[in-house]
Records
---
Amino acid sequence: MRGVLRAAARGWFIALAALAVMPVEAATFSWKSKFTSSSSQQLAAVHEMLHAAAPQRLSGHPVEGIVWTEPDFELRLNSGILYTEPPVQGRVIGGYFEGNARISFAPRESTARAMLQRLFGRTELADLSVESLTIFSLNPDSILEKIGVEAGGGPPADAATYEADKSALRQLGLRFTSLFLNRDSAAKDSTFFLFPMDEIRTAHNAEARLLYANDHAAERGISLAVFGHEEMSEYKPLKFTFHPIIEYAVAGSGPGLADVKTSRVVLAPDDMKPRTREKATLTLDVAPGVRALRFDLAVQMVLMSVRDAKGRDVPFLQWEELRNDPDFDETVLVSLKDVERSDSGEISLEFVSSGVLFEPWGSSFYLVDEDAWAPKLPLSSDDVEHELDLTVPASLDGIGIGELVLEEKKGPMKRVVYRTTHPVSMSTMYMGDYNRTEAPADDMVLELFQRRGHLQKNAKYTLTEVANAVKVFSRMYVPLEFKHLRITDTPTSHGRGFEGLLLLGGGGTSDSDSYTDAFRAHEVAHQWWFNFVRPLDAMRRDRWLSESFAEYSALDYYDVRFEDPQRSLMLMREQWFDPLTTGTMQMELLSGEKKELAGSTSYPLAAGTQNVYTKGPLVLHMLRYLMRVQKGNDDAWYPMLRDFLQTWKYKRASTEDFRAIAEKHAGVKLDWFFDQWHEDGGVPVVYWEYETAQQEGSWVLTLKARQEQKKYKLLIPVHIHFPGDKMIVRPWLIEGESGTKTFKLPEKPSSVSLNDRLEALVILRALNR
């Protein structure tokens, strides 16, 4: 088989060499990377066959009145020429159309519609006119396969656009190559359409394109991505990459390619210092028929070999690291064609690589990639048993997740082995020159690893704060089941909460201030919200189940820690409420049209953007207030959270799963609440006024309101103040564009205010002040 592939590739390259002398216009977008010297030449040849633009070898076919449908997508080829590319290993999978075509995309998923509204100003793209598009399809019954390659040759009238499209698709890296190798199994029927959209081609984005994907090998198989548009990235070199704006699953899509079961990584200093030598062994359950997998691996780690359980070399592709440009694809493609499997479909792969994992940073070290330092499946939701075998200089500490099962010194070196007690979804490690300090937290031992040279007076304070947070959350929620929690001081500006290991950058081991106290508690809370219960879609729809819940938990700890409601309220206002509601923002559609919005958020919470740290915790605060109004007290809140944790212990939960638990404890349907606060974007603006009047010996308070910007169902607390510092609070339910509410009062109020404790995410405009 390898010989046949080599011969086919050689023939293709001869054809390409002949084409090189023809005067065709150069492609618009460059792909600067090349494969490493250890990469498979045969796989590289397949990759080139799929991505090379050969306009002179296209076969043109007149078409008229053809309708091509994919999930939520329709392509009408009214009239024109459909060009087919030369077959690759007997399959016609590429094409280019010139002529009159119409495209419609109507996503069924609510977040997808909200994202279209945010970026295009409407919830579907209906009847778009296009004059060209490029097709990649693995459907054996597609029109590309049916018309074949027997008609006359190209080039198309606009060969430059075809070449530009092909060069744009190179920016997907190894995605098409992986799908092609799995064309007869998990990726069968996958189809992609790349097309221009005049509406979004502004002066700065003249090359903008949209890519629709029906990817049968992906969990969220339906997607729409933007290419060549500055609105999608503030970092202009990333303009010419594909930015997914919509990703969702439909029934029957994405069975998945493989599940990782175990990961064992051995790290030791390489002879070529300061490089690290890594041997990672993964066992996987692979779906029937899968012939290739892509793995994330930091480009700094150069693969030398991939071997199967019998020690035989397995072909792979890896891009060389770009020293002066961003690396757009950090995946490694591994061919499984000749890898033997057990009866259950299990395989074992050993990756041997070498590279600079740690860079010196002052008196410490910086881990160049906290996630892809060892091979893993991209965006994997697998729960994996991890083992780390790490050798470092004896003067340093090596730290991993799980329990420390071995620590031994051998001359100038130290070896440590960490092993998880149950499968977990993510793993990382660190090493450095640390001072180590311990403290108890109930039945748990805390270990703080603080970089030498930092103020050691802060160690006791940091340990005390982490211990207190563990104790508080254990009582609020459920106790953790592991016995050691390590806290590592890192030279970064962020924090991370892995199971049994906290990475605290950004001054996380410094003295007390409002931000640092909440930041530390947030990372501790990830032991429950991400590790105990794991979000099903951790990158988008369900990301808030980890980040927003951890952020809100930090406020709960802050309440207990300082016993000062005003201080907690100030923290909420500074970090969550004001960033969402203060001032105005210029929202720009992809067309360049600008809209001014009150506040500073427009994306839905389900989009998984940075508002999971602001809007998300306020959504939880509103849900808590709603339940308090519904039940008459706050007693249902923590039982609901404990129920959610216990029901989904060590499993993956969706927003819909959380909603079911919330409805159970609230006693009412909450579809409207999640539709407007999770699925929709923006913040409502309420103009309100009140008046008081004496009627029949009592006072009547009348409130009037009208909504702008969003028409939400709002539950807003009304704070009615009386002389002598007396106050009562009543809920006000506003449904629709306007609302009126009256309250009978025992005496005349001195003033009326709304939302004093930020229990509604709303921008208030008082009319009678």
Note: The chain has a mean pLDDT of 90.
---
Amino acid sequence: MQWLASISVRRPIFATVLILIVVVVGLVGYGKLNIDRFPNVDLPVVSVTTVLRGAAPEEIETELTDRIEEAVNTISSIDELRSTSTEGVSQVFITFLLNKNVDIAAQEVRDHLATILGDLPQGTEIPVVSKLDPDAAPVLFVAVESTRPIRDITELADKKIRQALENVSGVGQVTIVGGRKRQIQVYLDPSKLRAAGLTAIDVQRAIVAQNVTAPGGTIDTGPRRLTFRVRGRVSSPDALGDVVIRQAEGHPILVRDVGRVVDGEEEAESSALLDGKPAVVLSIRKQSGENSVAVVDALRDRLGDLQKTLPAGIHLQVIRDNTETTRTSLSAVREHLVLGALLAALVVLLFLGNLRSTLIAALAIPTSIIGTFMAMWVMNFTMNTITLLALALAVGIVIDDAIVVLENIFRFIDQKRVRPMPAAIYATREIGLAVLASTLSLLAVFMPVAFMGGIPGRFLKSFGLTMAAAIAISLFVSFTLTPMLASRWLRLDPLPASERKKYLLERVVDVFYRPIEAAYMRLLGWVMNHRWVVVVAAGATLGSCIPLLKAVPKGFLPKNDEAQFEITVRTPEGTSLAATNLAVERIAREVRGWPEVTATVLTIGDTAEKTPNLAKIFVRLVPPDQRKLSQDQLQDKVRHEIVPKQPKEYRMQVLAVAAFSGGGFSSATVQYIMTGPDLEKLTGYAAEATKQLKAIPGAVDVDTSLVTGNPEIEATVNRRKAADLGVNVMDVAQAAQLLVGGVKVSRYEEQGNEYDILVRADEKYRTNPEGLGILSVPSARLGTVPLLDVVNLQRGEGPSQVNRYARQRQVTFYANTAPGVGGGEVGTAFEKAVKDLHLPLEYSVVPLGQSKEIGRTARNFAIAFALAFVFMFLILAAQFESWLHPVTILLAL
């Protein structure tokens, strides 16, 4: 590198052009860098979501989940295979090894699923295959508030607001929570159906056959060509009642003769309350790889324009902006970046006592940092907390090489009385190897971090490479810009240092620096005379890493005060959506009464499962500098003041807002899975393990995924009676599903929009077991027969969800940690407690999610540390030209 310094001194324009290229490209790259909270990381997790409406969890497990797992289990490089079967929904999560390309993995999953599509039960919707993309998480939540009926608000939100927001560049998907869309409902009267000799299936077939529009071909008249089209759709909801079901005794039987048509709204599957008031919430996701901050800014501008066009009484309110944390974090890191650069320059000024020298050294900081933006752009990194943390750390490092080179040039000029230009060349040549060795040593420390394994390694890759780029560019600057400027800006004083009069700044520096120098020289002399003390101290320091590592709290992400958290509440199984709304709103109302809380958003059914008894309260807090209690303390306050007052049947957790979502992972700090062949025994072992987990100090919000006690009514077909009466079991199932659950049989078109037509029994016949006795099913011998003639009804209980891991049933344990406690400590204590239970060999407990990654991270850091030691040893051995020099080994350690 000395030749580069020599050229830069002799050809200053060449050196200036080189630096300008770095700066200009760096500034261009800075303008093209996306801004996000975390790096854009591809996680090889693929999910398969399959819907079979009305099916019980155990049916979903056997009919869908097991078949899907069997199909995808043969794909190569699978690390984990997990699934959740709930009412009507099967979700299978396939986690691949990190070296697997997620796009290839998703395509392989689709190919394997294609082989079993024909074997899935009738009525199963096409499985949806999606890959986990943390970068495509929701960035904005908008509430549509109004006193109008919820159907009108939903119609406006769906047809106008959602479509307008989806047109914003960078927006991937807009989901509506708490809305109830318009729906044309046909409520059948079972008694009238029986009197007419009809079944619900007859009504379904009639509507499907008589509400269609079909192409009829073309008519060629010679000079003209006409399109022939058959229009058979109903023109209005009332016209649906005129659809003919059957001709009987010379007159038609219409839909209105056996039921009533209602222009209504969907049955509520989700709910949203903003500060206790009903609202329709829009969850907006961005596209992968897009700039989160830019997307949210564009969305806010579009919302402002939309508000001006909305009818009076409709208000749009941003209730949650997930980029606020990103903006705050990036702003803080940028502030530290600037302050670090200024303080580093100030320290240089205090020790050198020369403004020109300080300016030369300080220029290395912005030049190196701007050059790092160029490297980040080339490596396709983003501006996030990880890369900016690397830049903030690099501020104090990138100036080191320039200071070493500058100080030696200054020494040549001031003490050896050499003119600036040759002094810059000779001084850089003398110190070049040492500067190169020290820079390579730093690279040896940070480069292994970039090649760590596991998910943390994917995130820390940008940290290690950004640091390495900054250090490498600082080396380039120290051999080009620094000697070139020193040769032009520094001056050779005609008088020696001992004879010339010192300036005020130099005298101040002498007062400050001389005592430090004297103390350091005395310490250095003592150390050189007592080398064994240094060796013992270094060994003790190295040995203390293991116990200190165990004592430090561990977690996948640090606990930050983001001025927001969530409370999840699961009411007893069987609780309706309306009852859950009332019960959980009381909790939200109490939380809103705290002075630290600015707003609460209660949502129910905002997941794919649409669980009516699972609610989530999002709590927004005032900024941290405006309250005395931290976010962690407020979460603890909820656990101690609110949770104990709730019924024991409520299952509650207080969580920080998850930084990532999807993939079936929970945001709980501690997660473990227990698997086994026997569900009954597994339940018993899980209960004992839960007691052990609750007894661990620092473990809070302890819960499991085991959810039982879901009330249900089972209709068992009496096959002998059904055969005697000419009733097919499939017809019984279809009729029951049609009358009780309801089926969307067709679509109604109006002004370019389509709405579902739902057929089901009238409410009084499907809301109690007694009403079911009037329902009828088709019979090949008698036309129709009462449902209760061929089925036996009995009450029972079943699981609300069935969880599996590696194709075995499993129970997942969840826990968070109290303030000041890390997830690693709780996890280690839990693993020890499980060993004391002496589980049979066929039952095992393995970490999941954050708990799994904490263990992997510790091993990966150990490997990175070992690699760093090897690199340092090789570099220092080359510097001292000896492989066994004691100083080499000591410095490497």
Note: The chain has a mean pLDDT of 83.
---
Amino acid sequence: MVCAAINLFVLCVVSAQPQAIPDKVKPAAYPFAPSRVKLLDSPFKVAQEADKKYLLSLEPERFLSWFRKNAGLEPKAQNYGGWENQQLAGHSLGHYLTACATMFQSTGDTRLKDKVDTIVAGLKECQDKRGDGYIAALPGAETLWATIKANGQLRGRGSHINGYWAPWYTLHKQYAGLLDAYTLCGNKMALEVCKKFADWAIDETSNLTPENWQNMLDGEFGGMAESLADLYGLTGERKYLDLANKFHHSAVMDPLEKGERKLAGLHGNTQIPKAIGAAREYELTGEVRFRKIAKNFWDQVIEDHTYVIGGNTSGEIFGPPKQLSNRLTDNACETCNTYNMLKLTRHLFTWSPSGKLGDYTERALLNHILASQNPETGMMCYYVSMQPGGRKAFSSPTNDFWCCVGTGMENHARYSDSLYFHNGNKLWVNLFIPSMLDWKEQGVQVKQQSAVDGSRTTLTFTCQKPVRADVLVRIPAWSAIKPEVRVQGELTNYRTREGFAVLDGGMIKTGLKIEVRFFPTLRIEPTPDDPKKAAICFGPLVLAGVWDSGTSQPGSQSPVPAMVTSGKPLSQWIVGDPSDPGTFRTTGVGQPVDVKLMPFYRVVNQRYSVYWDLLSEADYAKREADRKAEAERLAELDSRSIDQVRTGFQNSERTHNLQSDRSSTGDFNGRRYRHADGWFSYELKVDPDGPNELMLTFWGSDGGRAFDVLIDDKVLDTVRLRGEKVNAFFDKVWRLDPSTTKGKSKVTVKLLAHQGSIAGGLFGVRMVRSKVD
């Protein structure tokens, strides 16, 4: 019996309540509850155990600290640091509830359920003390809620609403955590707390006009639509679906429904939960527009914005479609994005199982999610750098709590999430991860043993009694030739359907063994816009190159090797390491050195590259000449420099007395920048006797930005970036009037955004002595 409508991730964990309603859309394939799939020894099991250890080390009362303060109760412990000590306080508690509930289902460790029950009881205590249903850790949000309640003027921009950092996004984590506490741990109190909390949200937004709703939704609001839709499915109370529908951001969703490609320039992880919400609303209502939104979004992200490891965005922003070669940055592939894309993929798979969906799930899990954890410490990455010569930066246990720590806590509890699916007598084997499946509906257990390089998988069955069933095994897109399937050792013919090998109508009984041999090979995967910039893969594995850079210091600027292949096939310049399957080495093409190629998930502390420049001898000679010329230019510039700011670097900006309003930093194309929709300023030394020149560095493809440059609060010039210098950095230089600097040792340089625009991105600031005429 399939349970009534609840989030697909938790389908069938809790028996349907009398008031729950069934989905209008009947799935073509049902996922298994996490408790039905147990991981066996593999890198995934190592990651799961490391994550469980971390979850058990965390203290519920430290997550509850801000909630108790806001409810007028005395905290029982000090709150955690990092983002838990900022406006986003409380988001981690929601993620932690979901992570512990999921890990409890996946491992059966009751200590995790105890932590869930402790937090739910604490939240109920806070809710009862307030009396209005509201529970939140958000510090200083009262003014915002009062504005919303009164239908005051609202303005969402980026991740903020009226200048407050993603309040609905944070609340969504709590809604989701409470629902998972109910569906995965059977905590009935969690559902009652969630309902009262949602009733508060209904009342809080009851006066908002449609126009003001849309103004508010221009800011990040997470998966509110998804959780409210789930709550409707669990309770059958239409008011929750009505509120979910109000979290419909027309500016993004309407173009998606029409199939228009308008994601460029949007914040990635603000958009993905909108598509997940649409997917859930489609399942509950059957309204086809929601299916179109979800499917069109998935297609666009996968086809236009996805890196080889399965991640997306640079600086958290979707770039122009199919342009990745100049977006190989240190802040690419935000891990939250892939977490959410996997959730969306799972919805789509249940509607219409396909090998393409399974291929993405495999790619993202193996090469991004698994690669985003330090297996020794259990710590997580926010971004997973695609910058050549980059490094992974891992969180600390108690002083970061980034968004990707929250989703990271969940990620490694969810490896069984899309491993198997079923419907009646059909079993889909979607991923090749060593595991045990309890297919209770058919009285069948399946043991899967597989190789991480994708070369083979074996399914062994144990049955209460013989049953007739269809087994569908995904045929990976990376398999060079048609896989071989053996049943009880005998080579078997099979038909294919939607990317799966179909073994239909066979009798399954204890001892049945199905062996599948795949044929992984080395291959090049170029960026869509530059065939000379490419990653190297082997079967399902993305390979990262590591080398002895001559220094162990992070941020080392020693040369990143290029591959001077002159068009030769891979087989002529890569050799395998017979002692370490899945590991290779380049031979005679690496400049200045050859490199070791290893599965990316195994890279932890090394400097690495995933993407490579594949050059001819002439290409390499020109690049070296350009590099030498640039080094000479910078040396000449250094000789004339009076002062310079390394934008985006804390020590340099602090030294230059950074002041700002609504400003932030990021990485792009290997360089750090600062920008603002308000303003920012630095103090720079000058030569009081002059002449002085101010030099600012911008990215030539940035467009639609207007801002003033001021010296000591006097406008020097207005800059309008129109994208006229495509795919190149450029310097804009002003020779300062001597009166501007006469008798001064320093000046203040300010960038002030025009109304509705952005100042920057600014990639560098110099004050230099003018050349002698």
Note: The two ends are 86 Å apart (CA to CA).
---
Amino acid sequence: MIGLTKRSKVTKRLTVVLLSFLFSLLVFIIADLLFPLPDFNKGYSTIIYSSENTIIHCFLSQDDKWRIRADYEEISGELAQTIISKEDQYFYYHPGINPIAVFRAAFNNILKGRRTSGASTITMQLARIMQPADRNFKSKLREVFRALQLEWHFSKKEILTMYLNHLPYGGNIEGVKSASLIYFNQLPKELSPAQIVMLTVIPNNPNNLIPGKRSALIMKRNYWLLKLGHKGIFSKQEVEDALVEGFESKRFILPKAAPHLSYRLKNSGNDRIYTSLKIELQSKVEALLANYVRPLRSLQITNAAVLIVDNHTRKVLAYAGSAGFDEEIYSGQVDGVRALRSPGSTLKPALYLLGFDKGLISPKTVVTDVPVNFGGYRPENYDETYRGQVTIEQALSLSLNVPAVELLDQIGVGVMNQTLANAGFNWIRVNSKRTGLSMILGGCGTSLEELTGLYSALANKGIWKKLQFTDHFGNVDTLGKRIGSPAGTYMITQILTELKRPDLPNEYLESAKLPRIAWKTGTSYGRKDAWAIGYNADFTVGVWTGNFDGQGVPELNGSDCAVPLLFMIFNQLPAGKDEWFTSTPDADFRLVCSITGMPADTFCHNLVMETFIPGISPSQRCNHQKKVFTNAAGTISYCNECLPETGYKATFYPNYTPELISYYEDMLIPYKKIPEHNPECTALNQNGIGPVITSLTDGAEYLVFAGKKQQLMLKSSCANGTTQVYWYIDTKFCKKAKPGEPVYIVAEKGNHILTCSDDRGRSSSIRFTVTPI
């Protein structure tokens, strides 16, 4: 009976304890719901990493703290063990508060009449960091409650990690990783025992126990080294070595490499950003760029930018937006990789690629390089000279302007703009309707990033993909967009690899350091931008030189100012494993006439080999000669209407265009002329190509000074065989002249019709207006 009574009492006590526990738990859950943990998102410093996980750039947090987040795995076991042993040895066993420590601290404080020891656990210290307040009884109760909440919501590992990331280390330094980098220039896992103990003791008095106050820190370090050694945290030898270990009493500067890309990616929403940069290559490029620009500044060329892309992945390996980010005098913080600039001639390979794919041209196609008027727009070559006839290969390698504008006129500016828009050219996409024929010579806005991406597409058989700046970034473009055929890009690469070209600097003509690359240069109008962009199978490198304020410099050009840097960079890149570009299945080879680049006819004797696209490249037979009937002396030509029954012969004459004939006449270049047409012919040919008026523009308004007899120049291009042209103003005869001969007239105020007729009855007319001012 007595046993039952005792058992009943024990049961009742257990029930009371259980009910009390459940009631306390319920109260705690309700309190947890009513008073949730405060938002502890103080924000970490943004850290930029290289592709090798090396820190390359650090930014302060939004509250101007060096608070660098460290995962639990980044912290050495000895560091975590040391801090736990010193601050809260029962951390893994209590629920946030340590009752034994509370009673011990209370007993000691009452016994000695003052506060001699605390009872704060690591969890309670974290609660105090989360919600700072004056040290009083009320704040202590709140710490206890918050500590219980933290243990309720987070694991011990998470609590310890948050604690280590927010420990104060003096000034604006918080967290063990920040302190480790700033005080010792090492990551937490690389710390020695002496450094570990220093990071353990500094948070107790962060204003006095810092490396700058050497004596106090050494005394505290040594005291705890001995104490922790007795606890077995460190071996005897480790303690002995640590006691004599020195350290530098200074703050190390955190890395600041790749500043332009770092600032570009800074606000991506993550405090850790893993770029695709190769830190060693990035450092080489930054140093090379700074040294390269230094002598150019004596010529008032103050800056440069470089971008290097891995052609296989489209990842950016090096990114230098200027020669010196901190050079305020040279606007070093401007990002030359993204800056909107005039591309000069760097877009021409994309134009010729379109021409190949549309079947308008092939590499050996011969075109004219003579002065041409495109509705008032008269492009000139960079060297202000013309070459008469050139192949497409020569036109691109020599970067001639007139053939490029003529090809763009055939293709259409809209088609070209759409192709470039598909290749990521944003300004051209937005301003497509505002661009004209001049865009192919630099009359548009592009960036080094866009141009480098375009040439990387040439290295990848015409597939364009967006460049990647990070290693951990979603929505990577795996398919890309086709902007050209494999055969077309192969032919472009063949041309851009040629070494007989004006943009090869003289010092590289016989140089063994000349890298094997395909490259193109560009110089913008006014010599404000100089470009050089090159590629091989593995890498594409883009170089820009110039002034960020847009100042033009007479000495600035792509060949002398950008190409040497391009070659230097390629010589720093690792040797590729891939072979050089080879022909593609959609390309083939054929023999063509060397005079026209067209498939040979019976009168073609000099043939050359060219790459072409079967079924697409021009297939019309050569027509560089045409049969003309003349008298026996070869002084008069006949048409079918006036051909006599006897006394004539058939002779082949060059089939030149009117523009080329006009150029030959102007430059006094001898050529085989078709004799004057039979003057007794009663039925002059009304068909064929009539004279083309090249001096005035159809629909244009010309301003003249009132009261002065200002003259307007008239000039025309005519078909081969034309000997005379006749000028008419408003149907009234004005003057007679030879083809290509300039004629000067005075036109009255108002609207006029100008007509030019040749000696075969063919004519053309334009309208223009004269307005006195």
Note: The CA atoms of residues 10 and 708 lie 127 Å apart.
